Amino acid sequence: MMMQRHREPEARQEDADKPRPECAKAPKRDTRKHFALLAGPLVFLFAGLLACFFAPGSAQAQQLVVTEAWVRATVSGQTATGAFMKLTAQAPLALVAVRSAISPRAELHEMRHENDVMTMRRVERLPLKRSETTLLAPGGLHIMLMELAAPLRAGDVVELTLVVEDENARRTEYPLRATVRALDAPQP
């Protein structure tokens, strides 16, 4: 048995010149319009994914919430100041280090009254309990920024990095920006 091949009829010039019925015409698509409709949501989705992977602390970024961060302004010749904020841990953590480009020595300190004398001492590790807010404020726990090279003026922005450790001794860095407030400004 012989198989026959199906042959397409050859296209003739007179067929090409004949008008085609409306139902046979393919709708003309504006691909730019479709791309524009998809581009916005795709960019938003891609940006969200990048933020998840490259955000400070990546997936652990939500383990520490820092609010109301500020730094006290300095006067000419002053080489140290304090940074203050509220820290709320979403899991048991400990603040173990602080860094800042403006200060070669950034340390966690605590002030307290002992025998009618105000004393200040360095704190090596500050436990942060889950779901509790720890206040770093003047007259109590605070971050000392020492050996400043230049005065800090109200309105300046200071970049800090908090280093926290979880229960498994994994360290995560939390970069933040704190606004410098005037010496006589009320506390937030």
Describe this structure in words.
This protein is an alpha+beta fold and 188 residues long. The chain has a domain at 60-181: Immunoglobulin-like, CATH 2.60.40.1890. Helix content is 15%, strand content 41%. It has two helices and ten strands; from the N terminus they run H-H-E-E-E-E-E-E-E-E-E-E. It has helices at residues 13-17, 31-54, and strands at residues 64-72, 80-89, 93-100, 105-114, 117-122, 126-128, 133-136, 141-146, 157-166, 171-181. Strands 1, 2, 3, 4, 5, 6, 7, 8, 9 and 10 form a ten-stranded mixed sheet that branches. The longest helix has 24 residues, at 31-54. The radius of gyration is 32 Å and the shape is elongated.
Features of the shown structure:
10 strands, Immunoglobulin-like, ten-stranded mixed beta sheet, 41% strand, alpha+beta, single chain, 188 residues
